[in-house]
Amino acid sequence: MSEVRVRFAPSPTGALHIGGVRTALYNYLFAKKNGGTFILRIEDTDQARYVPGAEKYIIDSLRWFGILPTEGPEFGGNYGPYRQSERKDLYKQYADKLIADGNAYYAFDTPEELEALRKSDAEFKYCGHTRANLKNSLSLSDEETQALLEDGAHVAIRLKIPVNESIAFNDEVRGHVVFDSNELDDKVILKGDGMPTYHLANIVDDHLMKISHVIRGEEWLSSTPHHVLMYRFLGWTPPSFSHLPLILKPTGQGKLSKRDGAKFGFPVFPLSWDSDHEEDNFVGFRDDGYLPDGLLNFLALLGWSPGDDQEILTLDQMIALFGLDKIVKSGARFDIEKALWFNQQYIIHSDDLKLGYLIQDRAIEEGYHVAVEYLAEVCRLMKERVHKTTEIIANGRFFFEAPHAYDDETIKKKYKPENKEHLIAIAQNLKDASTKDVESAIKVYIQEQGLKLGDFMPLIRIAISGSMQGPDLIESIKLIGGAESALRMLKAVEYFEKI
Ligand code: GLU
Predict the structure, then answer these.
(1) How remote is the CA of residue 40 from the centroid of ligand 1, in Å?
(2) Ligand 1: which atom is nearest the Cα of residue 8?
(3) Whole-number CA gyration radius for the chain
(4) What are the pLDDT digits (tens) for 139-174?
């Protein structure tokens, strides 16, 4: 195989959707697997849809996942610039060549005229069967064309799709793909403002940047015959194509859309989006408590099957196992439960101090100003019990403050007024106990008094944390400290007496 060069080519029209991250990941894996180059190209020719901040969001997301390109805007490289708007002047010569060779033509139809045609016929297509009746350099005389060109209004260049032809290409995922040229439209390749459309800019750049493999979402499959024709018309060898399966909604019905996050109540974007327009803002996976490695692992397996049952894969393992032949054709259902399972596995296997640092900002936001080593200990005790890092604080507030409410039902079942003195005695023991004596401060007392652990431990747990759920009680008390635990117990006993 000649040098492998792949690109991730998002349009900066908003936040990078999780499906885009998967496309970037597969390109990254394929490049690394083959000793190739992973390139980021910003496809910003559609200025009307340009969203400020989107490019930064894309790069920040790739950085968070640790799948950065080696060529691209901000990364350098010998094939730049890597933003299409900065390459604007480069494209026209290719459109001109297509015209000169009879493979493209000028079209002068106004947006209103085209709109009217579409209104009267929902199936309307600008193509070999309609172009003779429309306003273009093929239907008009040379003089008329010249006059309209000089006038300059609404001049587009369209690709001339041949009629009655089968356009075939090989797709690494789908195999032999054939399109009937009569089904295709004469796409605009250069607009009146001199900006190329996606189609022209994309193939010119793939050619000039020596892209060997195009790996992109399935939604671009229907554009590929146009691209294949342009490669042929320009005398260029097309790259290899791979179209990735769709990511489907959790219901399995239809493509997962940007709006589905709000609808299903989980993130569909890696990072949060904070703009002045509050209605546009959303929380991303990172702020919702997902770890990038786990999310990447989950995404990798949405549409790629490495061949055995192993699910937990490091990035290096993914690189070693990756192959385009193992990408599946059918859509992959986005199962948030599975994403949570991966996240849990990655949390469990994360270093406690690393987790501590991760939750530090949130702890401070919540008013919990504790040392990161303390947070690390909280993480050690909580990590088996959560699916998201955000739950470490949300479900472990008792590590930072005394409970505000108690599990009344259990108290009613377990509390006997005759045990009041024993609970107070245990609190007293705890107050003076050093960390290593915590266990005996509670258990030795209970045994010596001939009492039952089962009558006391639930109440002590409730006194410390408010509820019956939670990590190991002795370990929790050690962390909170004997003195604080004693105070909580005394306060709780007063409450127990009242209900
Ligand atoms: N700019 C296109 C996008 O936003 C790129 C498609 C391609 O990779 O060719 O997805």
Answers:
(1) 11
(2) 8
(3) 31
(4) 999 999 999 999 988 899 999 999 999 999 999 999
